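Q: Predict the bound structure with zinc ion.
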Amino acid sequence: MRFRKTALQTMVLRVHELGLSTCPICKSNELQVARHPVLLHTGGMRHDSNQPKDPDENVIFMVRIECPDCGYSLLFNAERFVKSSEKIFINGLTEEEEAEQERSGAL
Ligand SMILES: [Zn+2]
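A: Predicted complex:
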């Protein structure tokens, strides 16, 4: 699973709107938005699939901003970066297949 290309573009714009253009540690201006989400498990976690799910258990999809020079990373809730109605994930398609489906209107 990865972020859709359009969602990534929105996230890059949002990062710049927030004023994040340089790494706060090494001052590199090459910050990158990772194409794969970080899944943040909150409110408990089952170690055995036979156990009932804790009602507080949740997974938050985070977008990772990483400095390629020093590795410093920041996480943001991906849902705060895009419209709630927007499909932000894609699964099982290459970037070329995604682009083709967007051109044909399938996505
Ligand atoms: Zn850095």
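A: The two ends are 15 Å apart (CA to CA).
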